[in-house]
Amino acid sequence: MNVAALLENRRDQWAELELFCDALEKRGKVSASMAANYQGSQGIARFSALYRSACADLALADAYQLPPATVTYLHRLIARSHNQLYRANRFEPARWVDMMFYDAPQQIFADPCVKIASIVFFGLFALAMYMGRNDVLFPGFVEAIIGSAGIEQMEESFEQPLSGSLNHYVPMAGFYIMHNTGIGLRCFVFGLLILPCLYVLSFNAIYLGAAFGYMARPDAVGGDNFFHFVTAHGPFELTAIALAGGAGLRLGVGFFRTCGLMRMESLRESAMRAVPIMAASAALFCMAAFTEGFLSPSPAPYIVKAAWAVLSSGLISFYFVVLGFPRDAFTRTPTANDGQPSPFGFEDPPELTGSGGPNDAA
Amino acid sequence: MPSHSPLDTTIAVVTPENIAFDYQLAGPFRRMPAYLIDLLVRWAAIVILVVLAFFIGLLINIQTLGPFVIAGMFLTYFVISWFYGTVMETFFNGRTIGKWACGIRVIDVDGRPINGRRAFVRNLLRIVDLFPMAAPGIFVDSDIPPVFIIPTGLVGLIAMMSTKRLQRLGDLAAGTMVIIDQRSWRLPVAKVDDARVPALASFIPADYRISRSMARTLAVYAERRHYLTPARRREVARHLIIPLIDRFEFRSDIDPDLLMYALYYKTFLAESSAELPDLGSLAGYSPLRSSVAEVMVDEATDAEIPIAGVVE
User: Fold this and answer.
1) Which H/E stretch holds residue A193?
2) Looking at per-residue confidence, does A9 or A312 come out higher?
3) Which of B76, B184, B186 to mutate to test the interface with A (most CBs of A within 10 A)?
């Protein structure tokens, strides 16, 4: 059989496949105007049969000595049909729940990058807070970090006791979600280059720490109102920033510490591992934003806000530690001696081992 | 994968059907317009949604709904500016509106479709790929607001230049690549409409087997010869044909282009079992050297004959 006859034979099916591709690319499904045997499950079966036979033609192209132009045509036809046959999965909410309550805490608990980011963030935060509070040992520290104008503005905004209304709460909650989650996502993204991530993390830690330290001074104007404001959402928000930094570091460290994988493979692997951490961080940012929007500026008594702060810290700890504790930590790991029988041991009676019966598994 | 991969922007993908086929990769000049279109669409969507929300709030009751409208605007802005690409690529099989307009698509490096997590990573990391920023204020020294900071995209460009699959950093981290979405394409078959070709092909010895590389060369030649002038065709074909003329014992004044085309015809188009084609007006001519010798003995040469001399 020569090539011309072969092409003539196969051409009809290829044209049919192209017809399918045209319809699927335009509308995502076969149009109603096409023949009845192209609709529904019949159509899907027909499409995949056509696709497989085109694949077979390409596989045999060399044996049939098809002209190169025909081979190119087949490559393109198969690429088109491949894109239509294997389609992207839609988002699956069930998988999200799994990711948030299984993958993310496990990953956070096990990941050294999260630990490093937390130590950097909370360490610098505490240090800056101490240095900002102590005006005698470190004079001018707060002014250098925040600037005189910033201090004035901060004092001004916390001079009056907190009072708010719904008109104020709702937009602010929206704004905090946008602004703070945006910072977190940016911190994560910069993690790919490591240094910008560390910079954003340290900058936020030092800036916030200096502000806290300044407000904690006994002579600060509006210090009480300040802590009234920040107590409620503090645990959520500070943890979220540290987590975003940790996710970012995980991304960037994967490029350098490859653990035996190829560099690109390792980068891809660590990016996939960083996503649940970032998702947990974004969820924390959203919860912090709602707290910051609704509870923090409200004139509710301090004890309520403190109770919420304690409760949220407890929830975070539960999430990290109880859900995050390695699932297989309690199963006994086999030691080196397990494999070899001891010369001083005794052998199992032969009728009990290897009986091969259906109850053997028990 | 063949041991030698061509220096080209195609990438071979092995399907679950165990077939390797080629994708064409999309370079920066296709991807940048797609990005710009997406940027435009994104801002248009934000503006439209915000205006719509504002009017709905105005129509119903601005007093009670106002704060919710403002919060909704913030959230709309946040979701669209951060997750537009992720959602689009996941729902529309690796394409955003800009990619659809430019005919490109994102897929997995293994040729599988993209999933939500990969789309999330590659779209977030675009920020790093657009580094470093260039602010016109640096050069003009004026009070231009920081809105006009222009991303140069050098990081992404360098990453694309130095990777095999033209991946930017986001693609590398997500394990994706951007390919050109194949549109409909005509099946090219070279038709032989020259009556001399089948005639000459019938003189090619039956024991001559055409090798694979020879068949490929012939097919490429037949596809391209339309773009060449006759003189150029002869010049190109001569290198291959001169040894063949000796082997076939043809006369040396045979048009190399014609013989090349006849070989193509014999390989791809002629029925192997068919008897001699209808030679028509060409009957009686032969390109064979031996017949020329006979003719020379008969002292009856003829230079005007298209292929070669008279047989009997």
Assistant:
1) none
2) A312
3) B184
Nearest to B192 by CA among B212, B221, B213, B216: B221
Distances (CA, A) of A13 to A45, A66, A243: 14, 17, 55
Taking the domains of chain B in order of start, what are their residue ranges? Answer: 10-180, 196-298
- Domain limits of chain A? 3-85, 93-322
What are the residues facing B11 on neighbouring strands? B23
Among chain B residues, CA nearest to A57: B19
Q: Which secondary-structure segment (H or E) carries A173?
A: helix A166-190
User: Between the ranges A122-126, A191-195, A254-258, where is the mean pLDDT highest?
Assistant: A122-126
The predicted-structure confidence for B276-293, as pLDDT tens digits, reads as follows 555 566 666 677 766 554
Verify whether the Cβ–Cβ distance B74 to A175 is below 8 Å: yes
Q: B229-254 pLDDT, tens per residue?
A: 888 888 888 888 888 888 888 887 88
Q: Do B184 and A91 touch (CB under 8 A)?
A: no
Query: Is residue A170 a contact partner of residue B68, using CB atoms and an 8 Å limit?
Result: yes
How many distinct helices (H) and strands (E) make up chain A?
14, 0
Taking CB atoms and an 8 Å cutoff, what residues of chain B touch A281? Answer: none
Q: Which of A331, A323, A252 is nearest to A108 (CA)?
A: A323
The pLDDT of residue B187: 59
Cis before A334 (ω within 30): no
Please judge whether B121 and A271 are an interchain contact, meaning their C-beta atoms are less than 8 angstroms apart: yes
Taking residues A265-287, what's their average pLDDT? 89
Number of C-beta neighbours around residue B199 at 10 A: 24
- Interface ipTM: 0.77
Residue B286 C-alpha, separation from nearest chain A C-alpha, in angstroms: 25
CA–CA separation, A111 vs A1, rounded Å? 63
Q: Assign 3-class secondary structure to chain B.
A: CCCCCCCCCEEEEECCCCCEEEEEECCHHHHHHHHHHHHHHHHHHHHHHHHHHHHHHHHHCHHHHHHHHHHHHHHHHHHHHHHHHHHHHHHCCCCCHHHHHHCEEEEECCCCECCHHHHHHHHHCHHHHCCCEECCHHHHCCCCCHHHCEECCHHHHHHHHHCCCCCCHHHHHHCEEEEECCCCCCCCCCCCCCCHHHHHHCCCCCCCCCCHHHHHHHHHHHHHHHHCCHHHHHHHHHHHHHHHHHHHCECCCCCHHHHHHHHHHHHHHCCCCCCCCCCHHHCCECCEHHHHHHHHHHCCCCCCCCCCCECC
**Among A235, A208, A215, which Cα is nearest to A307's?**
A235
Q: Which residue in this structure is represented by tokens 């001083």? A: A344
Q: How do residues B68-102 score in pLDDT, each as one tens digit?
A: 778 888 888 888 888 899 988 888 888 899 998 99
Mutation site, A77, A82, A277, interface B, largest B CB count within 10 A: A82
Residue A342, pLDDT > 80, answer no
Return the number of CB contacts < 8 Å for A and B.
Answer: 175
Chain A residues lying within 8 Å of B96, measured CB to CB: none
Å from A112 to nearest chain B CA?
A: 20
Lowest mean pLDDT among A234-238, A316-320, B109-113: B109-113
B245 within 8 A of B258, measured Cβ to Cβ = no
